[in-house]
Amino acid sequence: MSAFIELFDRTYPAVRTALTTLPIDGDRRDDVLAASYLEVWWLAGCRTEPGLDVVEWIIGIARRRIGDTRLGPTSPVEPVEAAGRTPGYALRELAALLCRPVGTLEPG
After folding, report:
1. 40 closest CA partner among 50, 27, 53, 54
2. For a Cys staple, 94 with which of 3, 7, 34, 46, CB 3.0–4.6 Å?
3. Where are the beta strands (DSSP E) in 1-108?
4. CA angle, 28 as apex, 26 and 29 as ends, to 5°?
5. What is the β-pairing status of strands 84-85 and 80-81?
6. Can you give the pTM of this predicted structure?
7. Over the stretch 38-58, which tens digit does the pLDDT of each residue have?
8. Which residue has the higher pLDDT, 73 or 92?
9. Do the beta carbons of residue 19 and residue 59 sit within 8 Å?
10. 22 with 63: CB under 8 angstroms?
């Protein structure tokens, strides 16, 4: 688990910056970012080749996920809490893996 947290903390700034250039709104961007890191969590053991650029791998996952959301049917609107949008499953799951509150996923 600590290796995943370290991977997230080291790659998050570059991945987040790259995602800001892609055609997706801020709330969906956070969902895609979280879902991409969850996919990394599940697939990390499958990607062990030398010279792998991990940041590019994660950005590639995010690009594919954005493409999937643009091609698929629109999903129903998620319920909104009084303070704003309710975090989706991917954000809650990533927060649990990082042992951080949902609203403060960024590295300290």
Report:
1. 54
2. 34
3. 80-81, 84-85
4. 60
5. antiparallel
6. 0.70
7. 999 988 777 677 788 889 989
8. 92
9. yes
10. yes
Q: Are 5 and 98 in contact (CB under 8 A)?
A: yes
Residue 14 near residue 108 (C-beta atoms within 8 A): no
Tokens, residue 27:
């709330």
Q: How far apart are CA 25 and CA 41, in angstroms?
A: 24
Asked if 7 and 57 count as a contact pair (C-beta separation under 8 A), the reply is no
Output the pLDDT for position 91: 81
Give the model's pLDDT for residue 77. Answer: 41
Residue 88 and residue 93: Cα distance in Å, rounded?
9
In the chain, how many H helices and how many E strands? Answer: 4, 2
The answer to whether the beta carbons of residues 53 and 24 sit under 8 Å apart is no
Domain locations along the chain: 2-104
Over residues 73-94, mean pLDDT: 60
